[in-house]
């Protein structure tokens, strides 16, 4: 077993491994198409937004045990500080979010079947957490996940990067990043399913040293697309162009090539893929300011692979859902941080051969996301 392969499940998934990405050292970093070509991002593709999801007729999976179950929660964004609010005035409950997680773990511990793993979709700590208390805040969150007998998979969010260095985050969150500090990887919890975790802040003004080529590239992208003095502000930007804010980020050409190779591998192995990213990927599923900078390029790659069944994201705090023209489900999950005292937002996803069923608790809405069991040709690779 290589250092990038970590066993996850002994019985249920003999082939379960965690595979880290391997990319370059950051020199000559590339991200095609985002500097100096603003106009190409203005055309939004038509997508089918369907909150009722697609499973209307009696389904083969119903009444059967799932192949496996996993727990989901996002944007715990914990800090040991009094309640506050977002920039736009939405209340945020920095201490209570830890209680939401505690109740999530309690419920997963009682769940039958038990979750094979849990996923936190990023922003483990809030940017208002005093820097010197950041590790304590992260450890408090991790202590809850450590009550589970299974592994938790993490990804980086903007608030993680406000508080702690990339390398330290990768260490604390057990993210198998590459030598450059990138944080994308995949894992296979079942022989028929591959999870691909993207690093949405691969190209970003957050988390890289000022002299890093990725900082330079991100600075150029924002200079090209966001005329505001405060680069965190999407003011004056319209539609999907609102995504060009400093609290967003994008995926380098190297990560995109890795994603393509992962999907090729999954397709060849007859596996279904679920793509996870802190930043949402589908415009119809979220507020435009929350989108990944180069979501369009990522979607083109996903839609060219019929093995992709769903994307799951956090960051927007409000839940969202859309099914695109290629049949991929896109679910943005509700944040633990914005649950008023005593309320919850977490869930568990049952995975069947032909569907994902999200059982939400509290503010996290249920979802049923059906897909064909046949690995067909993609509907289109250029939607
Ligand atoms: N118009 C804005 C919006 C935000 N900011 C500043 O940007 C930083 C990040 O914002 P924040 O809302 O905390 O980011 P989250 O990841 O928690 O949430 C993402 C979506 O906004 C959820 O809807 C922060 O410093 C804000 O003050 C800004 O300057 N101008």
Automatic annotation (TrEMBL):
CDD domains: MPP_Nbla03831 (cd07396). Residues 52-64 have a biased composition (Low complexity). The keyword Heme does not apply. The keyword Zinc applies. Signal peptide: none annotated. GO terms for molecular function: 2',3'-cyclic-nucleotide 2'-phosphodiesterase activity; ADP-ribose diphosphatase activity; CDP-glycerol diphosphatase activity; manganese ion binding. Its EC number is 3.6.1.13, 3.6.1.16, 3.6.1.53. Its cofactor is Mg(2+). Coiled coil: none annotated. It holds the Pfam family Metallophos. It comes from the Eukaryota. Residues 42-64 are annotated as: Disordered. Keywords: Hydrolase, Metal-binding, Zinc. It catalyses: CDP-choline + H2O = phosphocholine + CMP + 2 H(+); CDP-glycerol + H2O = sn-glycerol 3-phosphate + CMP + 2 H(+); ADP-D-ribose + H2O = D-ribose 5-phosphate + AMP + 2 H(+). Residues 68-318 form the Calcineurin-like phosphoesterase domain. Belongs to the ADPRibase-Mn family. Monomer. This is Manganese-dependent ADP-ribose/CDP-alcohol diphosphatase.
